[in-house]
Amino acid sequence: MIDKYLLFHCQELLQIHLGVCGSIAAYRAIDLVRAWKDVGLSVSVTLTPAACNFLNPLAFSSVGADPVYTTMFDDIRHPYSHLEPGKTAQAFIIAPASASTISRLAYGQADELLACQALAFSGQPIIAPAMNPNMWNHPSTQQNIKILQDRGCIVIEPEQGRVACGDEGQGRLADLRDIYLIGLKSITPQDFAGLRILITLGPTREPWDGLRFWSNPATGIMGASIAVAAWMRGAEVHAVCGPGSPWLPLGIHRYSVTTALQMFEVAESIWPTSDIGIFVAAVADFSPEKGPEGKFKKDEAGDGFTLRFIRNTDILQKLSNNKARNQKVVGFALESEGLEQAVQNKLYVKKADMIVGNYIKDSVASLSGSVFILDRNGHEARWEAMTKTDIAWRILSWIKSL
Where does a domain end: 153, 186, 219? Predict the structure, then answer.
């Protein structure tokens, strides 16, 4: 199943056509259909004859795919089944794609329904191969892949790992989340194309002894939703992620850090060439003064002990103070009370272009929430009980208008 922080609901009725080839990975295509349907897309499916040996077409119909094609001439309801996806679908994705179908696409063979449909589609299909590692690495397959890529076809390469026959190597179907999101990206207006966005997300951990650390329960979900939304809309996204931050697609540049100092140093190195900085991370304001190298024994503390904390660099303020005229800075404020006043103060003190504020009870470990937003022009808004994916999408649209 697809994580909920990746479920971006489509505002208009669009269609994806999914081709399914013969592979044990074919059963995973059912989850793709379900995920695209969950966000409001129409999904049609074509199974090759080999795929029908692994799955009954009814499995796809039962999760909402319509129509589901199998053979070229047997269905009198669709006399032009080889042309229909090209006229109705905005994206054409083949997952899993077999070596034989890849060869058909490379050389324009039209001896199966799926190959005919791909030829009749005005754009380039997106393919996610799945096969035995030896088949994937064979020169013929690699040559066919190159032919398709040279034409502009997007190839979501298979993963390394153990395949059905027990062999190890590159051949496993790519992560469904990557396939799902690349499908969404292909039908999303690229209004952030050409922009470079820096995003910080997740918590930081400030070590004390060899075992313990100072941190907070931030999940990074809000930042991850913004990062994915920006990437889907065409931005080059650089995400600096604290420990435990959510999965991000391969198209996003990910930098994993642990401490506030590490997050600052990485963000500082990326910021000069960024157009927008969105600082969502729940960075620890203080770090405990360094303790023992090993584990601190409780017997050493007696009835208690005192820790001294040292202030960390304020990443938002530091980078906002160093922004160029054409750069935009967005910060987040997490409060327990007095949210609107805190947002106003933070916007002024940090010299940001926008501050997004929310209450602790509406934020931590939640997939939805309410936010109060204020920008440099005095415009404000309160969004109530909204999913974080919707909040992320609307924040980006607001940033575009600044």
Answer: 186
